[in-house]
């Protein structure tokens, strides 16, 4: 049997993958024609191309996969014509290939409205890797960009423009509001406010009449006579199914496009199937990948004489605008007599949620989430599986008081055949049986075994819950163990290492673990050892257990060079020291930048130059800034009462005291602090792991703040403390954190998981409810006393110094593959790949 | 057809030059080879120094360990891991790396490179 597939996109690929996994290699002779230059890639995550993913990263399978599976793949060679008479396809380059079954998976193309000037330079579509490459090349010269289309893809494209560094981004929508197909008008207006905060200007009710400019775009003219000057435009005004081949071959197509198919995915010619975004089922084009995969499954089933049929597909979606979740599911607009709606709107935080519920209050019909969509998976499942709602359904959107608790219960309530991963069509039963039957006890293992979670990835949190649920059901105690080599949590390990006074990684592994270690447990154990004993981290035996950055006492950068960050306590530095930094940077040809932590970073140092640079820095009175360590980073300060007219206390002196006390302290994750001289808070202390703000009477101590991707304000732990008490509280707080947190958990996350939250923490630190205060203060004091600058130790020890050469057999040579390019009178790392 | 390849054993360094349970980079003309001493298992491994993910010359600075019985190295950049025995990428998404045989003669370490 000969099968020819036209189109090597996401659905065409999935068809191949499913077909070869179901059949014997000799059964079918498979030929694929693709129009694009590369084999099928993950279009859903296309935008990640701008966040560092390469074309290869996005690839669904390398060319070799097709060869290995006996599939003949022709790329850059679109099918030109289908000859139904002779049952052959004719390609652009003239190949003629006969078929018994023909699969059309030509997808869709971006719809380009009839506006004059679309051919100008600087006008782009948003569909293929090539489109994105062209955008990336154009973007550096663009200041202002616009997107035509305020739908799902348009907003994703707008976010991409921001990522590309376009300073001013506009979204032009013809309809009166954004995402009219997915969310209601209240949701749109909340979304609009949020996007404006991101720096995106929104223009609704705007019809674009012309693209102006010479060869390149210079602006847009609208039907209301207004104009907007832009130097880059992305058109994302919808999609048009690619039915041209089918139409020309006399296969039935819809009036508004799309190849008409039946429930077996057969077109009007029963030997020709259409699947994916080009197929029109029941008057509908499904512009999502999951229904396309389902269609592939159905077509294969029919070819192999199976029973599966296509019955339509849920169009629930969640948009991936970072920090601006937007989701809609079921029937988002349901209204009328038999529907009750619950709405929650928080215009302050930009959150809007709507649930549509049956009149008897029992079932969820659909809903909309804007600004916060953490409960999307659970709500979607509740809706799809018609689970009976709790008496107070409002809880579903206001969130129940017990964090995390109700998620697990939700998973239990789902029926066995609930589809969890809609991209791959994997059910709850399949996931649970991979845990109980195949012993998959990590999300990674479940993904490998079932393929669940390998598509859009939206279901991964739920897979995790199901895994825990299935393991619980088997009576397995889920422990937060480090990795396959240690059956202990970090806290258990910390206590055991302490009791037994183990000092090296090997000792710990020999006595408490099994096997030979890995990149998860090595740094975690090394960090515990450093927190407990305060020994130089590169002491023989522990050196190779350190995370790579710790091992070389510097952060590795693109290209394999390192950054150098001397400590500048409180951000205070003398002119002489500034000069030293300048001259060292010049001597070793380093790029210099003021960091967000009030100090100076020197980038681009060759491995073998590190000890030489540090020798000079130490000579001038600098010491390591531990920018590479899970350790204290900076204690920022404002100028405070010595100069500032509002300052209440000397915040700089106090910041220096705090920074010098905790420098070098190893912890489960990095720790940052700041001291502000008054409530104006110029040092941003409330965004730090511990922050100190001057009051009339002393200092207020805040803890567990975080910047990063999920910013969180610190919480007030104690007020009006004198300087010494404040330090004692910090000692206790830090020791408690170091002892009990999981690896790589910042204080904010640690607190979020703590039963009783800040009240409990206050009880432990301030009221000494665990009776540990004295011991912790003493332990901290001994760590403070044992501090030494590890760079000083490193440069003075020839054994350690030897490790800072690129070639062991040519120590004087630098890595010849390291490359720099010039940038604003300095250098930068050459772009990778 | 029988293909015979000749292996040239090239002197790399001394045993004491390589950190315990760690690696170093060895230069053979224009080639960079990562050499590892897996002291815990009393084994030596050699692979290409370049990580195929972003083509970075850093595998010798990676952390070694084991997944089950399979010895592996994790790249310092994005933690892609590769089998030290076969060179296969254990995260399944990168291409494999080259591996080379290692031989000890007394305190001297030699790496076997195909002549060509
Ligand atoms: C240099 C600097 C950016 C700059 O040019 O200003 C920087 C650079 C890096 N940051 Fe940062 N961060 C810098 C300030 C910050 C700040 C602002 C601050 O400290 O006031 C934040 C948000 C505050 C916070 O941490 O809560 C910040 C949040 C992060 C995060 C996210 C942490 C989180 O909890 O989510 C990471 C990733 C991580 O640590 O896992 C990160 C990781 C990194 C790494 C280490 C990424 C890496 O692994 O290579 C960068 C290393 C550069 C280097 O080699 O020195 N950096 N980073 C800043 C150095 C400050 C310093 O003097 O030490
Ligand atoms: C930026 C972006 C973000 C998206 N985000 C999501 C999301 O979050 N969730 C979601 O579910 N979906 C999303 N989608 C939609 C999803 O990518 C599509 O639903 C999916 O790719 C459809 O697969 P397909 O194989 O039908 O079409 P395609 O992936 O478009 O593949 C069709 C292929 O056929 C080729 N072709 C066309 N004509 C011929 C010919 N004559 N001969 C040979 N080859 C031909 C085309 O060049 C193309 O390579 C997104 C799409 C884009 C562009
Ligand atoms: S926080 Fe207070 S002391 Fe510090 S600079 Fe601002 S106003 Fe001055
Ligand atoms: S460069 Fe090695 S993992 Fe990315």
Write a compact overview of the structure shown.
Chain A is an alpha/beta fold and 833 residues long. In chain A, 31% of the residues lie in helices and 20% in strands.
Q: What does this molecule look like?
A:
- The complex is a heterodimer of chains A (833) and B (116).
- By secondary structure, chain A is α/β, with parallel strands linked by helices.
- Among the domains of chain A are: 2-109 and 241-303, 3-Layer(bba) Sandwich (FAD/NAD(P)-binding domain); 123-237, FAD/NAD(P)-binding domain (3-Layer(bba) Sandwich), CATH 3.50.50.60; 490-546, no CATH class; 562-785, Sulfite Reductase Hemoprotein, domain 1 (2-Layer Sandwich).
- Chain A contains 27 helices and 39 strands.
- In chain A, the strands form 11 sheets. Chain A has a 5-stranded parallel sheet with strand order 3-2-1-7-19. A 5-stranded parallel sheet of chain A has the order 9-16-10-11-12.
- In chain A, strand 13 and strand 14 form a beta hairpin.
- The longest helix of chain A is centred in the last third of the chain and has 18 residues, at 723-740.
- Chain B has 116 residues and is mostly beta strands.
- Chain B has one domain (7-114): Rieske [2Fe-2S] iron-sulphur domain (Rieske Iron-sulfur Protein, 3-layer Sandwich), CATH 2.102.10.
- Chain B contains no helices and 12 strands.
- The model of chain B has no long low-confidence stretch (mean pLDDT 90).
- The A-B interface holds A 57, 62, 448, 484, 506, 509, 515-519, 521-523, 540-541, 543-545, 547-549, 551-552, 556, 558-560, 802-803, 806-810, 813, 815, 817-818, 832-833 and B 12-13, 17-22, 24-27, 32, 35, 38, 40-41, 50, 54-58, 61-68, 71-72, 74, 76-77, 79, 81, 92-93, 95.
- The complex binds siroheme, flavin-adenine dinucleotide, iron/sulfur cluster and FE2/S2 (inorganic) cluster (FES).
- Iron/sulfur cluster binds at residues 638-640, 644, 646-647, 651, 676-678, 680-682 of chain A.
- Chain A: One of its GO terms (biological process) is nitrate assimilation.
- Chain A: Residues 629-765 form the Nitrite/sulphite reductase 4Fe-4S domain.
- Chain A: Residues 557-619 form the Nitrite/Sulfite reductase ferredoxin-like domain.
